Amino acid sequence: MVSIVDSWDAFKELVYVMWTAIHLYILGAIYVLKELNRKTQIISSVRHLSTDDTDLPKRLDNKVAIITGGSRGIGLEAAIVLLLKGCHVIIASSANPKTLNQLTNTILATVNQQNTRKEKIGKLEIWRLDLLSIKSVQQFVDKFHSSDVKNLHYLVNNAAIMFAPKKVTDDGYESHFEVNYLGHCLLIWALMPVMVASAKRCGQRSRVVNVSSSTHYARDLRINDLQSEDIYSPFHAYAQSKLCQIMFTYSLNDWLATHPMSGQYITVNSLHPGVALTELYTNVWWVKMLPALARALFRTSKEGAETIIYATISSELEGVGGKYLEDCAIIKSSPFSLNKQYQQKLWQKTWQLLEDQIHGLPNPIDS
Question: How many structural domains comprise the chain?
Fold first, then answer.
């Protein structure tokens, strides 16, 4: 028999889910209007990035990039641009290991089809990475260090899940928090030493790019319930994980500023890629019901990759870190994301959770 307490808790969670959904759908409506303006340029001018823009390098030979979630959607479109410019791209994918070879061939076929200039394309590798598992992140890092890849110039943290049903991972974390945020934090920290060394060798700073979301504007951190144990909403869980990414970006930028041995060689920025119609919207009911409307309102994956490409390789951002970007421009993130006190609290909690995984690396919470 269901107790009164259980019924009350279920009612509270239902109200909370509805409330957070309303927040995000209102914000979503605003961003759909922004997408319409981007298409029409009626209200304001919005930059459309071309891969031939003068602030983008024509070639990226001898450069190496890792893109999480790069086997589809906006991550794939960014990978294709880098490959066409001659970059060595390692896609970190959670795809079935048995399909990775076929996936590699499929992507290369697409790249070759788009290579109208018949220039040398970069090397493509797809490595297994399941961000639902801290162990998988460690195995990915170990594979990188044991491989013949000695440089890393660009780390694009793009993989994500959105509005997923409640799930606790085998590591004990809420799934949005681990996939979108915590796993990427460990990946960044573990690969920072090689990014520093790569920057020293090539004379240009390495770049960390965190692909976040405009949904962060709609939510604040539940700093004492980051795992959504007290009450769960998929809408809050997603938005909070993206807010965490942005706040981590600011904290990492501050840490780098006080550690010049690393900071002079790495920049870190976060961004909203725009409302692009990708598989990320699998759990959005109206997109499933009205796909034609979604196609009319949203940008394509290729358009969604533009700000990622800009943040990763544009000369305009050389030496620029600790910024939040939309439509290839620096803008202000939410007031809450700029709160230094909460940035520091999140920074401390993050490294407490990852304490056992960062032995032998620089101490992220030293003075």
Answer: 1
